[in-house]
Structures are given as structure tokens and as C-alpha cells.
Amino acid sequence: MQVGVGTVGGRIVVAAALAAVLGGCAGSADGDGGKSASASASARGAAAGDTGAKGAAAARGGTIGAAGSACELPVSFDVARHWKAKSIDADKESATSSKGEDGDLGAALADAFLRQGPVTAACEIDAKPAGNIGFLRVWKGKAGDADAGGVLRAFVAAEDNVSKARYHSFRTGGGVSAVEVEYLYTSKLLDETKKESAFAVSTPDGPVVLHLGGMDTQEHEEMRPAYDLAKQTLKLS
């Protein structure tokens, strides 16, 4: 379930305020305020190969996943130009939130952001520097959960108010077998429906899920080239 504004740590304050107003009933709004006046920097690259991507990928801005990169992951992939990656330490975030003013409530809200189904947030790649409102988030599961399709279905099932989920298999540009889903999410809080996408792969260190949300469907489509770039370049670390 996704609620709030900004990065994981920053969203907790906003979510707590919403919980107080709504009696703990949380919705999902993957945005953080007004959109930057700059145009989207998701420049179109070469047409996608046989990687399940729908269109052209964004211009490359760097690579994450390897040791020493912004996010060390079981996989590596290219990040779109101007997008900014930040590693997430879920255990540290939870501990910090539990010590704050909100105590147990803060910890519970942090866990709601940091864990979805069988996976835990590991990296957040922010589109704001490129002129969009949204994130490409990376989630990791435990070693031994080898079924990427099953993990992805559990991930989607853990997000309330999902409809029209469509799954298919493909192979990333780095030769990794993957399962992808596209679906609609309806926010009770905002009373609107938006498109979301995610794909999952299996690694020796456990499954990895990449999820693209966005403030609304328009933002999602504008950020799609960055997601396609990840699909075209993802390989095992």
C-alpha cells in the first residue's frame, strides 16, 4: 500500500496526519505536491528489443545495483538521465520511526511503506529531478522465494483496490527471465484510478520487484521510458 509524499522517511509525517484525520484509514497517492515546471527529461532512446518493453527507452543517466553504486542490489540496471536513486534501509527506517513522536503508530506506518506482500523496499529512484512526480521503486524478497510470478502476484494482492491486472512473461535485455504486470489502482482517498506497472525476476539472493507508480496515469506514461530502460538493461549483479 502506498500513501504519502516524498521519500520513505518523509512520507511518514504526512501519512500520520492523514491517519489522524481519517481514523487510520489509508489510501494511496504516489506523489509529492506540485509538478516541476520543467518538461520531462525522459528523452527517447533506441527502440526496444525483445524485452517486453512497449516503446523507446529513456536516455541513460547511470547504472545502479553493483557494489559502490547508489543502491547495491542482486540485479543491476540503467537509470534514466536526471533520475536520482537512494538506497532504503528498511530496518533502520522502522527503528527510527518507532523512536519518534508517533511511537508505535510511526513504526506501523513505516512498515506499511517499507513492506508490501513478500518483499521489502530496497531502493527508490526519484523522477522529480527529471520533471515528473513519481518513483521507480525496487523491492527485495528473501532468498529461497524463487518464483518470480508468485512473488509478483502476492505483491499486487497486497495493494488494495487493484483491478484489471494482466500478467505476461518476457526476458530482460540482460537475459534474465521476468514476469510483468500492468494494472489499475483506485485510491479511495483521492477517488481516482491510475495505471501502475511492475515486473519481477528471481535471483540467487531472492526475488526482486521493480514497480513504477506515478501521481496519475499521465505521469505514469511520461515516466514509462525510464521503466523500459530498466527492463532493457537489467541483469544479475
SSE inventory with pairings:
Layout: H1 8-22, E1 60-64, E2 75-80, E3 84-87, H2 90-98, H3 104-114, E4 115-116, E5 119-126, E6 135-140, H4 148-157, E7 162-171, E8 177-187, E9 192-201, E10 208-212, H5 217-233, E11 235-236
Tell me what you see in this structure:
The chain is α+β, with helices and mostly antiparallel strands. The chain has a domain at 60-88 and 118-236: Mog1/PsbP, alpha/beta/alpha sandwich (Protein Transport Mog1p, Chain A), CATH 3.40.1000. Helices cover 26% and strands 29% of the residues. The chain has helices at 8-22, 90-98, 104-114, 148-157, 217-233, and strands spanning 60-64, 75-80, 84-87, 115-116, 119-126, 135-140, 162-171, 177-187, 192-201, 208-212, 235-236. Strands 3, 4, 5, 6, 7, 8, 9 and 10 form an eight-stranded antiparallel beta sheet that branches. A hairpin with an 8-residue loop joins strand 5 and strand 6. The longest helix is centred in the C-terminal third of the chain and has 17 residues, at 217-233. The chain is globular, with a radius of gyration of 17 Å. The two termini are 28 Å apart. Residues 1-51 have low confidence and may be disordered.
Q: Write down the secondary-structure element order.
A: HEEEHHEEEHEEEEHE
What is the CATH architecture annotation of one domain?
3-Layer(aba) Sandwich
Radius of gyration: 17 Å
| The CATH C-level class name of one domain | Alpha Beta
From the spread of the alpha carbons, the general shape counts as globular
* Strand element count: 11
Report mean pLDDT, rounded to a whole number. 78
CATH topology of one domain: Protein Transport Mog1p, Chain A
Low-confidence stretches: 1-51
Indicate the structural class. Answer: alpha+beta
Range of helix content = 25-40%
Major β-sheet, in short?
8 strands, antiparallel
Number of helices: 5
Q: What is the percentage of strand-forming residues?
A: 25-35%
In the CATH hierarchy, what is the superfamily of one domain? Answer: Mog1/PsbP, alpha/beta/alpha sandwich
N-to-C CA distance? 28 Å
Organism: Streptomyces argyrophylli
InterPro entries: Lipoprotein_23
Pfam family, one: Lipoprotein_23
Protein name: Lipoprotein
